[in-house]
Design goal:
Layout lengths: L1 H30 L4 H5 L1 H29 L1 H44 L5 E11 L4 E5 L12 E3 L4 E8 L4 E5 L6 E6 L5 E5 L6 E6 L10 E4 L12 E9 L7 E7 L8 E5 L3
Antiparallel strand pairs: 1-2, 1-12, 2-5, 3-4, 3-12, 4-5, 6-7, 6-9, 7-8, 8-11, 9-10, 10-11
Helix pairs in contact: 1-3
Length: 275
């Protein structure tokens, strides 16, 4: 009942105050200069002012409420506009982040190409991946129309990626060095000892057939050996030494390598063109 009677009491109070004000003004107007307000002077003004203030205090919240209702539509539209602008800013920020990362990758690629004296390359973007128990490959957005052929080496700014195994006019498929069917002739950067680097999917690479007397340092870089009949040019980083052991009954040393390339974040690569 209290919730119902309160608005009703407020309305009655407003009406009563308004009627009292109108009655006072009417009596004063009819009395002219002898009216009660003129006779009472400042005291009358105080009374009228008090009545006006009371009416204003009671009626102002009601007026503000209806004024707010009138602006609900425009406020909602303004809110929607601000949300749309925020979404556009967020999309733009993501695009800037992506472009910044790709520019950094291209700069590393250019630096590596200069170090290796590579004169003919095609820069490509990774557009898809095939990861399964049978093959670990990626697809590039460049193909035979750009001069790419089967068995051409592929690098990133960090090191060796793999080699081309399939080519179409505008797409090519690259077998990654972490594929179990991949084998790369590698060389320890310090001692010059060689071995064969085999892919182990998402596990560390293994370098087999290493001289058992070879001195191997932790984190030592392993690079491509660059044999004349091999697929890859020399001195491209393959990985870094993480573990050394000898298999029982083996006459050679086995080394585990952390790949130089982060294959989970591969975006921009270069295909080395050659006849």
């Amino acid at each position: 009942m209290a919730l119902y009677s309160r608005p009703r009491t407020t309305r009655l109070l407003v009406v009563s105050l308004i009627m009292l004000s109108l009655l006072t003004i009417t009596v004063d107007y009819r009395g002219g200069q002898t009216g009660p307000l003129e006779t009472m002077g400042k005291g009358a003004l105080s009374v009228v002012g008090a009545l006006q203030g009371a009416v204003s205090r009671v009626s102002r919240p009601i007026g503000n409420f209806f004024t707010g209702l009138a602006h609900v539509g425009s406020l909602r539209a303004e809110n929607d506009r601000l949300k749309q602008e925020l979404r556009q800013v967020q999309v733009h920020a993501k695009e800037v982040t992506t472009l910044t990362r790709q520019v950094a990758e291209l700069e590393k690629l250019l630096k590596l190409e200069h170090q290796l004296s590579l004169r003919r390359t095609v820069t490509a973007t990774v557009i898809g991946a095939s990861v399964s128990n049978f093959e670990w490959t990626v697809n590039l957005d460049k193909g035979s129309a750009d001069g790419i052929k089967v068995d051409m080496p592929v690098i990133s700014g960090d090191g060796l990626v793999g080699h081309v195994v399939t080519v179409a006019p505008y797409v090519s498929v690259v077998q990654l060095i972490i594929d179990p069917d991949s084998a790369v002739a590698g060389r320890l950067s310090s001692s010059g000892e060689t071995g064969l680097v085999i892919g182990q999917r998402n596990h560390p690479l293994t370098m087999d057939l290493v001289n058992p007397d070879a001195n191997v340092a932790a984190n030592e870089t392993v690079v491509t050996a660059g044999y004349q009949s091999g697929l890859y040019p020399p001195s491209i980083a393959i990985g870094f030494v993480s573990h050394i052991y000898t298999r029982p009954g083996s006459l050679t040393k086995t080394i585990e390598l952390t790949p130089a390339v982060d294959f989970s974040a591969l975006e921009v690569v270069a295909v080395i063109l050659r006849s």
